[in-house]
Amino acid sequence: MVMKKARYALSAALVVMPLLSVEAADDKGLVYENTQDIAYDSDPVSLATMNESDGALIRVVRRGTRPTVVDNTEQPVKVDADSMYYSSATGNVVAVGKVDAVQGTQEIHSEKLLGNTKSQEYTTDGEFHYLENKGATKDLRGTNLVYNSGTNAMSAPDVIGYVDPYYVKAEKVDYDGQQGLITKGWLTTKHAMAYKGVPDYRIEGSTIEVYPGDKAIIRDVKLFIKNGKILSMPKYVVSLRSDRDGEFNVFSLIPRPTYNSDDGFGLKGSIEYPVGDSGELFLRYQWMTKEGFKPSLGYREYLPWGVATFGVSRESSSLNARTVWVEKRPEFSVYTNQYYIGKTPFTIRGGGNIGYWKEDYIKGSHAMFFGEVSHDAIKLSKNANLRFYGGYQRDYYGYNDSIRSMPYWGVTSDWRMNSRVTAFSSYRQNNMDMRRNSPYPFDATDIARNWVLGATIQLTRLDSFTISTQRDVQTGELRYVDYTWHRDMHSFEGWLTYQSKQKKWSYTVVAKDF
Questions:
Q1: What contacts 176, CB < 8 A, 6 or more positions away?
Q2: What is the per-residue pLDDT across 82-118, written as a single tens digit (0 to 9) for each?
Q3: What are the tens digits of pLDDT across the range 320-377?
């Protein structure tokens, strides 16, 4: 049977590429909303004070009916072609000409498609172009794509393109429906590919094995800056257990160059290594010319309801516009996921820690627990959001046998006024006796009733300017008026800040991807 611009609906699925991001769910009906920006969207600003990567390890969990998610594998495949042959007896399909195969959010474009509806095996004879979400999440080109629409297994040689968040090039890509394998390939980022030609940097491997939700193994690792090799090692394992968005940072093994006018030049990095079924060893570090080496290392266990960590660390915070450091040696912490209360828009979370702290001459045991309630953002308008939160925190300090009891509440808001200007405001009130503040400058409350007000102006495609103020509502004093210029510098980005109340300049430059 031959027809002009024919259409044929295949009942099975297209290929699922190796780095596919999926919404995680367990057998108890809990759905992890992985696509949310945990620190800045789902949680109030207080979450940013947590030590576990600013809350990046905390999931938002909804009980009950799962939200509706489009499953491409359950959608029919529609094929358009200049001409097509199909045999109902044998199941053979031949589509020739301008072939467009579409299923849900996935598309395959080629000049010839061969297959069989009974074996569910299909091949693009020659070049293909694969898109997902119109290219926003995947945009790949290659030759002779072979896939099984029943198992989602696939393979293709000479693949190049974008798989969010990386650009990939490989002599061959294989996927068996569960695990992915990239052979003789390299990965880089969109920042490194901003200009034509050789990427600014890339990481190569003889094989890159991807086990979603567990780990990625890169063998015969080589790091290139342009065409110059600067690092090589036989094997590197990247943990995917803290990965919420189907993304993993293969550049985490590379020290991240940075400069800050307070701390000087430095290098930052982190390494995670999977252990057992649900744990990982971690090492976070930074070395600064003025502050020295600041490592954090330990073990992290991902629990069904949260995350537990045991380790030693050196961590920093800001007090009165200066950086202060504390040593935690060791500390055990547990934080729960953020759970929706039934089918309501309200959420609840909590956690605590216990350990030994040392900051200069101040040292002793420390324990803390907290609980917090919040809710989904209230849409004041299409471009304006409002969120309230409230909670209770209690700290025990062995240094001077003191207890800090701190009920708190707050509100955050933002308003995108137009394509260039975004205004923001927040208020946090810590109801505490300031005479019973923390003896450690590291976690001392600077302003008990803090009102933040400011705006960001997008000056150009690469430049933005932010004005931010902080007022002590209790005393009426305007404590901070900061002006910050941000510049996108291709593979790097920089911030120049002037704190006018402190008459202090600071400049920070960091690499975006490693």
A1: 151, 153
A2: 888 888 888 888 889 888 887 777 788 999 988 887 8
A3: 777 888 999 999 999 888 888 888 888 898 999 999 999 999 999 999 999 999 888 8
d(CA 467, CA 116): 62
Rounded Cα gap, residues 419 and 122, in angstroms: 45
Check residues 192 and 418 and name the one with the higher pLDDT. Answer: 418
From the list 406, 391, 307, the residue with the least C-alpha distance to 346 is: 391
pLDDT at position 425:
94
pLDDT at 132: 81
Bridge partner list, 201 = 225
Q: Are 208 and 218 in contact (CB under 8 A)?
A: yes
Cis preceding-peptide flag for 212 (omega within 30 of 0): no
Residue for token pair 């995947």: 138
What is the secondary structure of 91-118 as a DSSP string?
-EEEEEEEEEEEETTEEEEEEEEEEETT
Strand partners, 493: 488, 510
10 Å CB burial of residue 108 (0-12, 13-18, 19+) is buried
**C-alpha angle 23/412/488, rounded to 5°?**
70
Q: What is the pTM of this model?
A: 0.70
**C-alpha span between 121 and 353 (Å, rounded):** 54
Instruction: Let me know: does 262 contact 288? Beta carbons within 8 Å.
Output: no
Among 491, 501, 508, which residue's Cα sits nearest to residue 194? 491
Name the DSSP class of 25.
B
Helix (H, G, I), strand (E, B) or coil at 369: strand
AA identity, residue 507: Y
* pLDDT of amino acid 252: 62
Q: Residues 299, 304, 309, CA angle at the centre, nearest 5°?
A: 20
Q: Report d(CA 63, CA 75) in Å as an integer.
A: 26
Question: How far is 415 from 429, CA to CA, in rounded Å?
Answer: 22
